[in-house]
Write a structure and sequence with these properties.
This protein is an alpha+beta fold and 79 residues long. Helices cover 34% and strands 13% of the residues. It contains three helices and two strands. The chain has a two-stranded antiparallel ribbon. The longest helix is centred in the last third of the chain and has 13 residues.
Amino acid sequence: MIERVRVAPPWVRGDAKHGSPRDRGSADRYYGRRYNPHYWRVNEDKTMARVSQDKMTEQQVAEYRHGFDTEQDRDEGVL
């Protein structure tokens, strides 16, 4: 019997922390979204806040760009 296993998207498997600029760039490219630097910050109370490009450092924007530019896979709409 063959067992089907669902593989996590590349940004989950890679070395980018979930919600990081690199993770978000990779996810945006994977899902066919436009280039839009941002990331998610986890607050002390465990809530999350979206950080937009105007609040990001140059390094964070570069990390987003790297994730966006190097993502090779694309979502094909298969669940």
